[in-house]
Write a structure and sequence with these properties.
The chain is an alpha/beta fold. It is built from eight helices and 16 strands. It comes from Ferirhizobium litorale.
């Protein structure tokens, strides 16, 4: 059954519907789909990124509601994606600059051969049941996201692997023998896709009771009331909104356009912060030549804004 997660808020002028989606399926004809899918998105005013590979589809798109509905309907008309699920939220402005349909080796890159979520995967846990699982003292809770994501939000008591990329996750698991000290492993990520592969990998590593949050953090923040939530902070998202909070409301973080790290209001008061040039997380690792180049780019962005345009590098 196709399941649509809808944030209950009516569309108003100046708001854009955002759809996050993924679906694992045997998809050998993925190359032939790129061009018609790109054309449809362009015609419908839809922007974002969709990744196509032998193993399925993954991405996030935004646009007018009618355009998003048209793209989703087209995708579900493909036999491989008839059961495609997606999650919805709203953005106050278009969160993407362009539409990109890309061909990839994997729709989420883990770098481990023969990991197939269609063959083996962990047990899905609904958001309403998640709190009980992660509060169980017999459970180890693992955040499968990267360090810049976990920096602004994490589930209470979760283990943070501090990985820079998802490719580092398998080695982190292999090197942490203590993960076998408790019988249950509970894993989560932004929308669920990384956990599809992460839980499959854990099962192949000999872990028996492996669970993951169905729909990811986004689904949890949509459905679980703030007063019952065990989520602490905001959830990083891969678009110009930067973060979302409970109810999938837009967060208050902004992005450092020098290093792409999410920034708090406190970060922007640091003497190491300069809009578009540096922040406390990257200032000391950048050279004066780097900062000069970033300032020149920032100047071009400011000029474009005065002309009522949006600079492609912004």
């Amino acid at each position: 059954m196709t399941q649509t997660t809808v944030f209950p808020q009516a569309e108003v002028s100046g708001r854009f519907l955002v759809a996050a989606l993924y679906h694992f399926a045997s998809f050998p004809r993925f190359q032939s789909v790129r061009e018609p899918l790109q054309t449809l998105c362009d015609e419908q005013g839809v922007k974002g990124t969709l990744l196509l590979a032998h193993e399925g589809i993954n991405g996030t798109i935004a646009g007018p509601e009618a355009g998003i509905r048209a793209v989703l309907a087209w995708l579900r008309a493909q036999p491989e994606f008839a059961g495609l699920e997606h999650k919805e939220s709203w953005a106050s402005k278009m969160p993407f600059l362009r539409m990109k349909v890309r061909l990839k080796k994997e729709i989420v890159t883990m770098g481990v051969e023969n990991i197939d979520p269609n063959h083996i995967v962990g047990t899905y846990v609904a958001p309403q049941d998640w709190n009980a699982l992660i509060s169980d003292p017999e459970t180890i809770v693992i955040d499968t996201r990267n360090d810049y994501e976990t920096a602004i939000g994490i589930f209470k008591g979760a283990v943070d692997p501090n990985t820079k990329t998802f490719r580092e996750f398998p080695d982190w698991v292999r090197n942490n023998t203590g993960l076998h000290n408790k019988p249950k492993i509970a894993m989560y990520c932004t929308g669920g896709i990384r956990c599809e592969k992460a839980t499959a990998f854990m099962k192949e590593q000999g872990f028996d009771e492996v669970y993951h949050l169905k729909g990811g953090i986004l689904k949890y923040l949509e459905e679980v009331p703030p007063e019952e939530s065990l989520w602490e902070g905001a959830c990083f998202v891969f678009d110009e909104r930067v973060s979302v909070t409970h109810g999938l409301e837009e967060g208050e973080h902004r992005l450092c356009h020098a290093c792409r790290y999410p920034l708090t209001a406190e970060d922007t008061t640091s003497p190491k912060y300069e809009a578009g040039v540096s922040c406390p997380h990257c200032h000391d690792s950048r050279t004066d030549e780097d900062r000069l180049r970033y300032r020149q780019r920032q100047h071009q962005i400011a000029l474009a804004k005065k002309r009522g345009q949006r600079h492609i590098g912004s």
